[in-house]
Design brief:
Elements: H1 17-37, H2 41-54, H3 57-77, H4 83-103, E1 111-113, E2 119-122, H5 126-147, H6 152-163, H7 166-169
Antiparallel strand pairs: 1-2
Length: 183
């Protein structure tokens, strides 16, 4: 089995669709760390609102560090041979973000604050829109990695699925069309 990095394709990763999407996701994740790790007013609002809504008061104080760390790990993984895992992480993180924007008091439009902590306007839904774009980008990366024979997700899924009993796989016998092995 030969698992390659995104840069080992025929085109340089920075010029490919996957490379561009990985750069986009990583840029947004890393750029948001400033807000999450410095406890900005926007971060206090978001995680404080979610802590109050959920009843998990610790989430207001530590949620931004938890999510920021997960985003940092995902961003780094996007540029390794485990880029599919980074994309899966991005989908999970952004699924949570989208859920919380849609189904909690957080809402889609976030307030913006000045340096003194006073609300000066809104983001017009930009944060929510970016979460949706990151989610879509990560889905493209997961599908791509799971379909490419050299992709880690492709390798993992085939190894996992080949270990399932035949009844769970939905096969009644025959051969695997990809490699001719009996199933």
């Amino acid at each position: 089995m030969n698992i390659t990095t995104p840069t080992a394709t025929s085109r340089p990763a920075l010029l490919s669709l996957a490379g561009g999407l990985s750069l986009f996701i990583a840029f947004i994740f890393v750029q948001s760390l400033f807000f999450k790790f410095t406890n900005s007013y926007e971060t206090q609002f978001i995680f404080g609102t979610l802590a109050g809504w959920s009843g998990f008061t610790w989430f207001g104080a530590y949620g931004s560090y938890l999510i920021g760390t997960a985003e940092l790990i995902a961003a780094v993984l996007l540029f390794t041979r485990f880029h599919g895992v980074g994309a899966v992480m991005a989908i999970g993180i952004m699924t949570g973000a989208i859920f919380f924007h849609l189904f909690t008091p957080l809402g889609i439009v976030m307030p913006e604050f000045n340096a003194a902590g006073q609300m000066i306007g809104t983001d017009g839904g930009l944060l929510f829109g970016m979460a949706c774009l990151i989610w879509l980008s990560a889905v493209v990366l997961v599908v791509r990695d799971s379909r490419q024979p050299q992709g880690f997700l492709h390798y993992f899924l085939h190894r996992f699925l080949n270990r399932l009993p035949q009844k769970l796989q939905g096969h009644s016998g025959g051969t695997d069309t990809e490699n001719g092995d009996a199933v």
